[in-house]
Amino acid sequence: MTRRDWIQLAAAGAIAQSVQAAAAPFTLPPLPYAYDALEPYIDAQTMQIHHDKHHQAYVDNLNKAVASEPSLAGKSLDDLLSNLDALPPAVRTQIRNQGGGDANHTLFWNTLTPASKQKMPSGKLAAAIDRTFGSQDKLEAALKASAAGVFGSGWGWLSLDKNGKLAVVSLPNQDSLLSSGNRPLLGIDVWEHAYYLKYQNRRPEYLAAIFHVVNWDFVSARYEEMAR
Ligand code: MN3
Q: All domains of the chain, ordered by start, with CATH?
């Protein structure tokens, strides 16, 4: 091999590497705790399959969708989900479903914590909850009712709406609040993959359980950051 051949080969390798890096911009974040950290409310096997298989699949499929459309290179997930209507029609549904799935789950893992570490909302969030819903109990009842009422797969959400107000809403499938100009604070996943191994058809039992492991510290900090 001549020096020139080597340089060409090295350059081709560098390009191949950068193309590969550009083709898979999204990665699965590690769980911020052990699989069994949310026991007995959420079981370890559910957490493992939910994170390692379901969330990984959203990430992989999102990367495939982005790789198929060069105009999307370099865009953040927030940007993609906030501007669905501007996306090429060929990838819009995939970004909505797979990108929504990635974003929703990344937030979800961070909004949960072992029950032994749980603290209730504090600071500005606690005040906003009292002002908007009357009490923490009433907020939780509204969120549970919203999540329980999802027909099929979807999420119950505590959102910060366009006017900076707290709101409880449900959305189907993996739809993102960002796509309607709202911002997610806390999502309750009511896809069967989130609870079926332990709770089977008993969604209300799962909903009662999950509020023992909501990371209100994280949600409070997120609210302070977003409500500025
Ligand atoms: Mn899920």
A: 115-226 (3.55.40.20)
